[in-house]
Design goal:
Helix content is about 80%, strand content about 0%. With about 150 residues, it is mainly α. It has one domain. Helix 2 packs antiparallel against helix 3. The protein is elongated and about 55 Å long. The protein starts with 10 loop residues before the first helix and ends with a helix.
Length: about 150
Amino acid sequence: MPFTAAHNPFAWIATHPYAYPLLEALHIIGIALLVGSLVLFELRVWGFGAELQAPALSRLALPLTLAGFALAALTGSLMFASQPGDLIANRVFVAKMALVMLAGLNAASFHARGGAARLDRTARVQTLVSVGLWVAVIDCGRWIAYL
């Protein structure tokens, strides 16, 4: 039997007067934590706040980044679950998910090579890629409703 909205236990989220807007607000808070903490650390990689030790700042920022990602992923998953067919068919949503995956791979590569301690050219390039990917993710997220 094909999956339909009638069989979706999360469909109520999309039509409830408060559920979807609340999830969107929490999603934005998660994004703010994620991107805000990343940008702060990435500025340090680029030489700003040189009096701050990068590894210590990384240890402070990383839990906020991960908490922001977790909140954005949880709320995003619930919003997705409310209308999966519509979102999977949306090219911008698919692009957003691909960009999130690339951002995650970039972050994993940065940490695997010890970029927080190196602060070398590769680390600077990876932080530029990171900012670019997350800005693109945010842009795609805004366009999902319009395309």
